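User: I'm new to structure prediction. If I give you an amino acid sequence, what do you actually give back? Let's try with this one:
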Amino acid sequence: MDTILVLDFGSQTTALIGRRIRELGVYSEVVPGDTVFDEAFRAGAVFRGVKGIVLSGSPESVYTGRGSVPDRFVYECGLPLLGICYGLQRMTVDNGGLVEPLPLREYGAKKITIEGDASRLSEPGRRFMEGFGAQSATLPQVPGTFTAWMSHGDTLVRLAPGFAQMGTSETGYPAVAAHESKPWFGVQFHPEVTHCERGMDILAGFVFGVCGCKKGWSMEAYVAQIRGELRRRVSGTPVLLLISGGVDSTVAAALLLAALPPEQVHLCYMDTGLMRKDETAQVTLTLEKLGAKNLHIVMCGDEFLAALAGLEDPEAKRKVIGDLFIRIQEREVARLGLPDTYFLAQGTLYTDLIESGKGVGKKAHVIKSHHNVGSPLVDAKRKAGRIIEPLERLYKDEVRALGKILGVDAEVLRRHPFPGPGLAVRILGEVTREKCEVLREADALFIGELKKRRGPSGKRLYDEIWQAFAVLLPVRSVGVAGDERRYGWVLALRAITSADGMTADVYPFAPRDLLEISTLITNAVPAVGRVVYDVSSKPPATIEWE
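Assistant: Good question. You get back a string of structure tokens that encode the predicted 3D arrangement of the chain. For your 546 residues, that looks like this:
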């Protein structure tokens, strides 16, 4: 199968590059940026069928010595190369160019003007530039502007010998470069993010126009591949999956139940007291429909609330929750009599791994710890090789597509994401039973209204929005109820649109909807005295508040 290899230098969007290429119908494989391309690697399954290599972005700078350096074979093998952000800077420095810090960081949406002379390029170069809007590969000029998404603090001061500048950012710095004779290209922005205009066209120009790949990848192919991998790895050993009730763990359960005998799969759901309203009943019904034979419901809300008492720091809360998850799981395993060799399965997505600094390579920065990624006990399980994460290279919408193939109910797949730590990271400051009840009721009202109301497209607001939830702030505000003074909690509403969770925009509610929802919440939940709406995009904010 034709493959594009992605070298991971630690960018938060590395796997998104691979995922976009898979969307084009071409298989992609992500490997560490400093992978050694020795004879064993080149003879292995990963390198078989590789038609081109993408060098990803990175949080590092090429001149500090902290960023990974690709094996020299990458430049000597003759395969087409595409450098994205740090990847272009890496190609520049490694081949005789110069990169220096910018006086002012280029960040967010920036206009790019294509203005280079395409006639100077080889045939692959002209095919690559077609992705930027060229009408013909023979046109000497490739004019036009588009909006790209940038996130870098360095710039190309001097291109490496043989490279031509083909595009410039609105701030006057190089944005697109192409080698005049070799199939080497680079962009100083991120075509993989949804906010980048022509992003998929640019990637397609490289994948099809330059690399000559043929389509051969689909989600159905992924299902067949992962089923085979699960059967080979697990064999007859029991598998225990921790179920959160969200889309990710539900689809992971469906995949395990489809790949393995149901009697071999144990599903453990913990009601932590931090769940959404009526969560336990809904989860039980869904898993039974999927054919679960061994479903274990653990009521442990008192334990979690006791462990969280007095904690205000979000990372501390996440760590405590992660450790307690595993301790209770171990206790339940002992009670169930599973052998020591059992596998622990999790519905971890690539976004969870990336934000926890657990990407393919070793250069990703920690954004926030996820309870099923960053806790010491989970790390110990991972190092022992007893963790199964069948969704670890997928994004949220890919998981939904997978769930549809596996027969998961559409209403379950449309559920908005819910964090593993639950309401604990939507209650800022200390978590108490009272605050959980207040937030649970307010959030249920908010989500209920989104399912009742219609948006501009005619669809339910809930379906127009990628994720919506309420956050209880550690602030009380003076209000008036009837003729009485009331001192109630401040509740923030959050609603965003996104394709994959890596970038997000604020949902533009009609003012009437926000006003009516706010009134409903303050009337129905007496403990809430004021409602505000969060208008922060990602980046710079994360989707969840903690």
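You can read the tokens as a compact description of the fold. Here is one thing that stands out. Confidence is low (pLDDT under 50) at residues 135-142, 353-359, 363-371.
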